[in-house]
Records
---
Amino acid sequence: MDRADKPLALTLGDPAGIGPDITLLAFTARRALAIPPFVLIGDPGVLAERARMMDLAVRIEPIGDTSAAPSVFTEALPVLPVPVAGEVVAGRPSAAAAASVQQSIEHAVALVRDGAASAVVTSPISKAVLARAGFGFPGHTEFLAALAGLDASDAVMMLVGGDLKVVPVTIHIPLKDVMGALTTARIVKTLLISARDVARYFGVARPRMAVTGLNPHAGEDGTMGREEIEIIVPAIEAARDQGLDVTGPHPADTLFHAEARKAYDVAVAMYHDQALIPVKTLAFDTGVNLTLGLPFVRASPDHGTAFALAGTGKASPRSLIEALRLADTMQRNAGAAP
């Protein structure tokens, strides 16, 4: 098999959350929705118990390596076992499970880097649970960068929802720390990585990039803050000097309506919520979280663990399904690129 024909590596996420639920639901829809083959990296017992709770007749098939996954996938859910320590109760997160959560991500990345899987798709994790267990990263993005041997600033988060692609320059930091973290160099680096990977994975040779301001009304010529004048405009000019198609800074509150979205391929926002709110408003059930800048494709549902829904059968698998499809498309586009 070449890389395009190898399965996606899907992690279980927090076992007490909806990761098991949406995995099972996505698997049951594999034929009707033409979902590409994937192998689940996690605890088979957790999946079997969740299938029982949800009254789903899904056969769980532990396998020894990914080569068996495509053939198994036609009739059973292939699982590379990563046992979870302690009892797993749907809806009740436990720090005892943190080690298996981390191990499943590490295993997925290793599979892709070794050529045994085509891309990484991660199910939701609880940052709070992992932090209590001593996890040293604020989220998936930073951990994936470390696993790839990169600096955290080399990994860029992109949210995709329908025709909207948004990148936040700063990610998992308190709002009060954004101003200190926002630099011209960081914005330029984010723009360069985003432009390169949008071309590689989405086939847009020279993406049009719209940059938001930080302050209300993009600073109103310095009357509402000088970050636009002193940090963001120099970054836009530097990116243009390197051949990028960049406009801005635009007021964030007027950049995401339907007509405005026609003018760009990617919006680059200054902080987490400035980017995620429009995507989750427009495509809450189908949004996908990507990590650009890595030497492999990584996608994830754009939602959290939803502990209250775990085991109820009410969690929607749509975002996971979109993540699986998009990861498959991206790795095929990258493989076909000259």
Note: The chain has a mean pLDDT of 94.
---
Amino acid sequence: MRALAGIVGIVVIVVMFWDAFETIILPRRVRARLRLARLFYHSTWRPLSRLVRAITSQTRKGTLLGFYGPISVILLLIIWAGGLILGFGLLHYATGSALHLQEETPRVASDFYFSGTTFFTLGLGDVFPRTMLARILTVLEAGLGFGFLALIISYLPALNQEFSHREVNISMLDERAGSPATASEMLRRNVAEGTLEDLKPLLADWEQWSAELLESHLSYPFLAYFRSHHENQSWLGALTTILDTSALLCSVLEGRSRRQAWMTFAIARHAIFDLATVFGISPVEADPDRLPPADLTKLTDVLTATGFKLQAVPEVHQRLSEFRRMYEPYALSLASYFCLDLPPWIGEEHAPDNWEGGAWELGRGRRHRRPGRHF
């Protein structure tokens, strides 16, 4: 019995330590499907997402989903710590509960209690090991526990920094492409007289953002569960808007003028494909179509209004359709999994942006008047 407990304890320690190493320290995508962290998120997120879909209030739905990301990280840390304490407690039991207690006979509960105080380096002194093997286990657990706590202390600020860095550009997209951000508003506000002088630097910035999103969310996949501050904004919505805009420009432009749009599209498509792969999500077809023929006509009108001269509209439509098939199925599947809404292609022309309203204005029936619609 004690031998079996020792084997189970070693297995539990190895599993917990390796899972924490892969999740926190290893800076690359982990391909193994049988992982504790993956099992935890699948077993907790899927029931929650089904529950959320039954809620009609968007505010309550957003609040509930907003708590999940941070709470899930805390729960995962507790599971790792609890598993390590359990494993070392089983090892102490396997070595014969070689502990000294004041006025009490050692029991199984004593092994787990001693393991917990050792892991968190409390040093209460009411229980201590009697044999050399028990002392070695105590030193190993105390060192592992101290390292684990130090790792968590340094890890949480880094995680918060990655989230904040992601959200800065998403917030800046509000004035650049509307709320929610759309491809039509991105073009309407940043293209003038058919030139891309204002849009090219913006696309370059979003090329960098897409690469950083890919790197951070492959290293820390649970960042994808962290919601943005506004319900009409999300990392997936921003990424989809950039893909929509880049795909449209690649379909319209020729030669060197499409270079920046193509590079931005390439890295953004890379990000959305790899993230779908990490979460094991299969692509799905759009139903209904995100860009029906009527909206496609409006979109070409927007291009014409910004100064683009469309020579062969059917050819543009065909090329745009080919680009869309490269990323839309993955965007739709990710949106369904994370309970997020994808932005439309065509934004409401007079819809207020997030920066234009607030509780004070809305409570008094007032709204700031936008100084200029076209920038």
Note: Residues 178-363 form one domain.
---
Amino acid sequence: MDLRDYGWNEELSAQFEAYAQRGLVPARVVKQSRDLSTLVTPLGELPGKVSGKFRHETAEQADFPVVGDWVTIEPAGDNLALIHAVLPRRSAFTRKAAGETVEAQVAAANVDTVFLVSGLDGDFNLRRIERYLTTAWTSAAEPIIVLNKADLCPDLQNVLTAVEGVAPGVPVVAVSALSEDGLKDLEPFIVPRKTVALLGSSGVGKSTLINRLLGEERLPTAPMSDAAEGRGRHTTTARELVLLPGGALLIDTPGMRELQLWADEEGLDRTFDDIEKLGARCRFPDCRHDREPGCAVRAAVTAGALDPRRLESYVKLRRELSFMELKKDVKKRRQQEKAAGRRFASMVKEIKKHKPRYQ
């Protein structure tokens, strides 16, 4: 199996050199399901799992292998490979893990282009597109907005204008995966040996879109679950990388009912570039565009040059990011306190061990 077909290049070869001296083999994760990975390797396709040492030394779940990762492996017999390390990621699409835990969850790694897929049906939402864009810009991959189910949209041109208004400078492509209308417009972004990840809410038609690009019904799909609202049913349960006939690589991911941000200020600023430019004209450099005098952003809303709902979305996402940063700081301090406690306990134990005993 030629790893160059899966994106292997000179940069990766240089990163792998030290591992090659230890007799390890490079591989790419093409499917992930719980603790088991499916790997493409020079030896063929193999199932793989992380080594005991890797599991013991890796504290953060986000550092474990995900689809798209390049890893170093050791064939362990019984048709199994042990994963010893993950090579540095060029990009990573990351969100906050579900629940109360303050932890990142990586959906896909080493992605060149992100197709942010949104369905033009009853579940269409501009605010969700802004949220996905913020995460995409943070990932270091190039975002493309793909509006699927165009055949269900009676006012397509106005919708395209609205989407372009919340995604300045980002290509927007309308398609219908079922009828294959518009798929040729995606071809410039599907390049041999480059990786595209499809991300979006449940039921937007990602699997159907991939099947059309593959030219076969490889991934399972399901019909609409709610005809009145136009919501599709989520079918993908495991992340998977597939090789297209033209040589490009596509990653399908399970649909997300909710995308909790794990992003940075730069990603937010790029998503709301229009507001950032207006904010540069505010009287105060730290203006929050709330009640401060001389706010150029609020003046634009009053003048009708900026949609108030876009400003509301910007303020909401910025507050969400700020709150997440505070939670990260609290978690970091607690980890530092625990580490200091362990060091102190170890020191006391060592002192007691060598303390002279007097009769």
Note: The chain is about 35% helix and 25% strand.
